[in-house]
Structure formats: structure tokens, C-alpha cells
Amino acid sequence: MKDIVEIDLGNKDIYIKKIWGNTPEVLSFVNKTISDVSNNPDDIIGEVFLVSTHPDGLSRFTNGKLLKDEVGNEESVFGKTITPKGEFPLLLKVLSAKKYLSIQTHYKNKVEAWYTLSDGEMLYGLTQEGEEILKTEEGRRRLAELLQKSSDLEVLKKYFNHREFQAGETYLIHAGLVHALLRGTVLEPQKNSNLTIRGGDWGRNVANRQLHLDDFFASIFPYQSDPRPISPKNKSYRTDKKKPKNSRHSCLVATSDFALDKISLQKGERMLETFVDRFFVVIVLSGDIELTNGVVYKKIKKGQIFILGATPNEWTFKGSGEILLTYVPHLKKGVIDPLKNSGYSYREITEIGGGALKENDVYIEMKERGLL
Fold first, then answer.
1. Minimal CA–CA distance to 95: which of 25, 165, 34?
2. What's the rounded Cα separation, in Å, for the pair 331 and 95?
3. CATH number attached to the domain at 4-219
4. In CATH terms, is domain 233-368 a member of 3.40.50.1220?
5. Residue 109 region, left (φ>0) first, then alpha (ψ -120 to 50), else beta?
6. Residue ranges per domain, the chain?
7. Most buried among 80, 126, 132, 223, by the most CB within 10 A?
């Protein structure tokens, strides 16, 4: 394989039918028609496994090879971020909803982020009343009855924060944080796991969508959650002194499992270094951009996803548009140091890891290094 490989988004196996799906928004993101992604024009698509070795949706490259088959064979592409068991560390999906998704949490150590690709709304964490009702057995019983039967958003908003979001916001979702996408489209980078704990399904009672109420209540964070998005932080690198042309590189969120950055170009350019210890997933959100390392020259556009391999390289993005980068970070070298070089205090840098400090990997890393 080469230093750059493209994911095949014409692979129909990665498009998942969901009762809550929003097919037009899915098609807009991947820049495809319904015939490109499904054999049935009436299919309702709600989920896309963009970069995945999970059996629910196996990614392949445009050369026809499956990602899962190449992970162990291509250290030059995936580097040392592959787990000791030879597993791919990331799962990258898109969710698009015009009906409410289930109210859910995740199992221990499962962490994901939502980058909002459209306006929409969601439930995110507990309200004060939600925290209070969980303190007693009787309160949990009453809430369980509501979750089993209720389709009334106004009722459940008493217990879970309701937020209307705008395109371009980022939220971090740790295991145990109650959440539900109600409307809109989100990009979902996460640790490689597809397990969820379903606590409520708006009274749908569909046979293959069972509730897991015991696990749900056992897993919930027992405290209120701040539903505000994470404030992005702009990164500086040594190369910025040479070519800071009409571009911005922002860190949107960072955990020990994954990070998400955004590069914005206005007839500008931005350099990205790759190393032997990490690869980058490049998602083109918009624009017409040239990607080059001095040997490879490639025009990239909306609806394309690439993996930049884990080899020493200097890639330059040129043109106008927006690009998302997902990768397994070295928290100090890849997140903390560049943000410190940009003038942020260590306290400000902790914000990029989310509001729950005991779950905030950036905060924990700096505490261990004596920086806070």
C-alpha cells in the first residue's frame, strides 16, 4: 500500500438502515446518490460506518481490500497505534436522524465525540432533577416506567438536558453519560466499539430494540452534566513561522483514544507531519483542495476520506475548504505542547478534554506531569 489510501464510500455494506434515519442528509455528506449506496431507493439510511473494522460495517479501500485485512499487514500505513491484539483502534461513523434515537449510555471505557454536521437537537447528561430522581430506589423505578413508555420529550427534558445545536460544534460523550440524538447529522469518532446500553426508545417497543434498564441505571454518571460544546483551540507548529498562509488548524477534542482536529483553508495552505507512531484519517467536508507531499499530488473534494500512513512525511493541503483529521494522539506532543505554543494556559488546554475532569484524559496527563 502507499502513503495515502482512499476509503471506498461506494461500498454499500457500510450504509445501515434505521427507522430514525435521514437519507438525504447522509447522501449529502458522502456526496452520493441513493443508487450509489443502496439497491432499494426506498431505504431509510441512518448510519454509515466510514472507517471501520467492525463486522456491523466493514470498510474497504478503493483498491478493493478490506481495512480489517490490511491492519496487521501494513505497519507503514497504520504504524504503532495498532493495539497489541492487532486491532484497529478507531471507529468512525456518521449518524443522521429525523426521528429520535434511543436514550442510551455506553459500557465502561467507551468514549466517543459528536461533531455536528448540521443544526439539530439532542439530550446530553442529567439535569438537577435527573440527578435527584436517581438517588432513591423509588425515583429510579418511576424514571424506568417513564423510559419504557414515554414518547413525550417535554416530560423527559425534566431529567436530561435538552440542547439545540448548530453545525460545527463538538461534544464529548464518555461511558455513563446519558445521550440521545433527536434531530440532525453528526460525525462520530470513537474508540473501536459499537456497544450501547439502551435505556429508553420513546415507546416504540420494537422487538429488535430491547431496553437494557438494569445496565442503564448501573452505568449512569450520578451527577449533572454541562451541555455546552467544547471550545476549539487553535494549534501552532514550528512550520507556522514559515507558512501560516490563510489557514487555521484547530483542536476540537482530545482523549487518549482519539483526537479530532479541523483545518480550514481560505485560498491558503497548511502542512501536516506524519510519523511512524500515528496515522491520520482525513475527511473532506468541503472545497477543492490539493494534497501533496512533494511526490504525490492529489485533488481532494467533499465526500472523500483518506488515510495518511504512519511514515515520516510532510503533507501540504492547499486551496479552500474544510478538512477533519481523526487520529490516536500523543497527548503531550500532539495536543498539549502545540496548544501551549499557541499561548493557551494549561487550565485552558484542559477544556479540550471535556468538562468531567475525572474522565478528562488531557487533564489527567497534565496532572501526572505536574503541569497543573
1. 25
2. 27
3. 2.60.120.10
4. no
5. left
6. 4-219, 233-368
7. 126
